[in-house]
Structures are given as structure tokens and as C-alpha cells.
């Protein structure tokens, strides 16, 4: 799989975090999520993921995904509590392709159908490598939409990039879903 990723350059954690923030922080859907959990900001919400995964400590590089419809479906779902509880069906490391086969996903999630139709022309995912495998840390919905598009024989003309750091040999902690008392 790594042969389908073309290294563009090294990238700092600050640049990676800024890309993540650019992708999410202004989205009203995500704002509703962090506010519903009693958090004050996007940064406070995402710190729940950043710290346990030790993302700022890692060495990052920026890649272009040369054949997204072939490669992204093989990416592994991240260690996210909500995804594990709702979609992983006991598989601790499902691929995007495996997730796309779940009835709850392929049965017509309108958000994913819309995302396939309106896929961003240039987007960046964030992941951790574990050997030859890529674990998605940010961009689960976009990665799953790519896998669904591949399953449906659709084409995507999007330019897909990914920021990656190595986590080989590590057991990634389950992250997400802290609720603060108001």
C-alpha cells in the first residue's frame, strides 16, 4: 500500500494540526458535537484525540495518494470510541472497505452519499502508519466515502493527500467522547 503514496515533503505537527482545524473547526455539525459534550472549543475537543495518540511528538510527512480508489479502501479505521461502538462489529481494525460493507453504512447513509457527490476537490487526511498499514486519525467520513465510491464503481477526480507519522509496534488507545459536567 505504501507504494501508492508519493512523499511530497516533511511537515510539522503545527501544519498538520492547522490542516485538521481547517477541515473541521467551522463545520456547524462538529461545533454541535463539541458543545453537546460541554467543551468550549474545537481545540479542546480535539485535544482528547491528540494527547493520547501522542500526535505532537511524532515526525510527520505529507503524501499524495496516487490511486485513491484502490488505496484508501485499504486504510484502517481509527481507534475512535463512537466508531468502534457503532460500526466495527467487534473487529478492532477494520479497513474502510470492510466498513463500507456494513449494512448501517451501505444501506444508504445520506451523509456519505452526499459526500461522494460533493467530494472536496483537494483534501487531506491524517493517519498513522503501522508497518505497511495506514490507520486513519482524521478523515474517517471522507475515507469511507472513497471506499463506498470504489464499491459502487464511481470515479472521484479529487486530489487526496495524507499526513502520516509512524506508530509501528504501538497499540493505539481508544479515544473520544469525553463529556464535561456543565
Task: Looking at this protein, list some descriptive labels.
about 180 residues, alpha+beta, 5-stranded mixed sheet, 9 helices, about 40% helix, about 20% strand, globular
What does this structure look like?
The chain contains nine helices and five strands. A five-stranded mixed sheet has the order 1-2-5-3-4. It starts with a strand and ends in a 16-residue tail after the last strand. It has helices at residues 13-24, 28-36, 42-50, 68-71, 81-87, 96-100, 103-106, 110-117, 140-151; strands at 5-11, 60-65, 122-130, 133-138, 159-166.
User: What general form does the structure show?
Assistant: globular
What value does the average pLDDT take? 91
State the low-pLDDT regions, or none: none
The main pleated sheet reads as: 5 strands, mixed
Number of strands: 5
Rg, rounded, reads: 16 Å
Strand fraction: 15-25%
Strand order in space, largest sheet: 1-2-5-3-4
Give the terminus-to-terminus CA distance: 45 Å
Number of helical segments with 4 or more residues:
9
Structural class: alpha+beta
Order of helices and strands: EHHHEHHHHHEEHE
Roughly what percent helix?
Answer: 25-40%
Amino acid at each position: 500500500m505504501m507504494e501508492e503514496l508519493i512523499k511530497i515533503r516533511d511537515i510539522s505537527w503545527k501544519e498538520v494540526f492547522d490542516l485538521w482545524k481547517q477541515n473541521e473547526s467551522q463545520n456547524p455539525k462538529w461545533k454541535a458535537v463539541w458543545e453537546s459534550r460541554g467543551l468550549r472549543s474545537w481545540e479542546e475537543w480535539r485535544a482528547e484525540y491528540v494527547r493520547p495518540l501522542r500526535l505532537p511528538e511524532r515526525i510527520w510527512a505529507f503524501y499524495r495518494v496516487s490511486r485513491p480508489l484502490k488505496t484508501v479502501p485499504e486504510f484502517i479505521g481509527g481507534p475512535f470510541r463512537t466508531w468502534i461502538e457503532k460500526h466495527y462489529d467487534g473487529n478492532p481494525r477494520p479497513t474502510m472497505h470492510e466498513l463500507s460493507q456494513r449494512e448501517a453504512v451501505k444501506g444508504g447513509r445520506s451523509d456519505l452519499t452526499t459526500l461522494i457527490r460533493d467530494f472536496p476537490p483537494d483534501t487531506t487526511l491524517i493517519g498513522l502508519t503501522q508497518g505497511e498499514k495506514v490507520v486513519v486519525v482524521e478523515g474517517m467520513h471522507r475515507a469511507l466515502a472513497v471506499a463506498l465510491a470504489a464499491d459502487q464503481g464511481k470515479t472521484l477526480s479529487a486530489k487526496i493527500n495524507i499526513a502520516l507519522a509512524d506508530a509501528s509496534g504501538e497499540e493505539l488507545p481508544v479515544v473520544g467522547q469525553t463529556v464535561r459536567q456543565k
